[in-house]
Amino acid sequence: MQIWYHTKFKKQFNKLPLDTQNQFYKRLKLFQINRANQKLRVHPLRGRYQGYWSLNVTGDVRALFVDDSDETVTFAVIGSHGELYG
Questions:
Q1: Residue 8 gets which letter from DSSP?
Q2: 26 partner at 20 to 30 Å CA-CA among 13, 20, 32, 51?
Q3: Contact present, 8 and 79 (Cβ < 8 Å)
Q4: pLDDT tens digits along 49-86
Q5: Would you kindly state where each structural domain of the chain is located, as residue ranges?
């Protein structure tokens, strides 16, 4: 699976605390092994983010991605639940 990162995602990611960044990398490994892993709580979004999927990084931080194809995923934005949906 190829993983791509949108410029906006990279900027937001770099502002996150180091422990949250490390947690993202742990979750990304799980995602690459088994996208349906219950810890990730991957689900499609509706409304403003129609066409995106959400992945739980921590209790409050979500990484939103687009499933470009069977082999390519692009992470678009990352942030707290309130920042993204509020």
A1: H
A2: 51
A3: no
A4: 999 999 999 999 999 999 987 789 999 999 999 999 87
A5: 2-85
